[in-house]
Amino acid sequence: MNVKLLNPLTLAYMGDAVLDQHVREYIVLKLQSKPNRLHQVSKQYVSAKSQAQTLEYLISNDWFTEEELNVLRRGRNAKSYTKAKNTDVQTYRKSSALEAVIGFLYLDHQHARLEELLQTIVEIVNER
């Protein structure tokens, strides 16, 4: 299967799960706290606003390869028929674009690059 041909919102769906799992593992091991506290902390990493800010930072630092930029564009421009919750459409599209790249890397078995991206996302959020 050619992962590049998948719908970008499908890639974003997968990327959302991958990012969420990575962040949960990170904060559980770091905080060793109660679930409510863990949930509050995880929102700092996985909210649409945080993802959009992270994406802007990564783009401004030329972090992505040309292939990943193509996935980003497709993810950002995809027409979603669900309404964005707690954010504006532009922020939602940026977060979907970042999730699409994560989903692409995961499904394309680019594990080293995926791990590099996930660790970079955590570092960027931690610096805020």
Class from helix and strand fractions:
mainly alpha
Number of domains: 1
CATH architecture: Orthogonal Bundle
- Radius of gyration equals 14 Å
User: What is the number of helical segments per DSSP (H or I, 4+ residues)?
Assistant: 6
What proportion of the residues form beta strands (DSSP E)? under 5%
Instruction: Note the overall shape.
Output: globular
* Major pleated sheet: none
EC number: 3.1.26.-
Function: Involved in correct processing of both the 5' and 3' ends of 23S rRNA precursor. Processes 30S rRNA precursor transcript even in absence of ribonuclease 3 (Rnc); Rnc processes 30S rRNA into smaller rRNA precursors.
Protein name: Mini-ribonuclease 3
Pfam families: Ribonuclease_3 (PF00636)
Index terms:
mainly alpha, Mini3_fam, Mini-ribonuclease 3, 128 residues, 6 helices, single chain, Ribonuclease iii, N-terminal Endonuclease Domain, Chain A
Q: What's this, in brief?
A:
With 128 residues, the chain is mainly α. The protein has helices spanning 8-31, 35-46, 48-60, 66-77, 89-107, 111-127.
Give a description of the structure.
The chain has one domain (1-125): Ribonuclease III domain (Ribonuclease iii, N-terminal Endonuclease Domain, Chain A), CATH 1.10.1520.10. Helix 1 (8-31) crosses helix 2 (35-46), helix 1 (8-31) packs across helix 5 and helix 2 (35-46) packs across helix 3. The chain starts with 7 loop residues before the first helix and ends with a helix. It is mainly α and 128 residues long. The chain has helices at 8-31, 35-46, 48-60, 66-77, 89-107, 111-127. The protein contains six helices and no strands. It is globular.
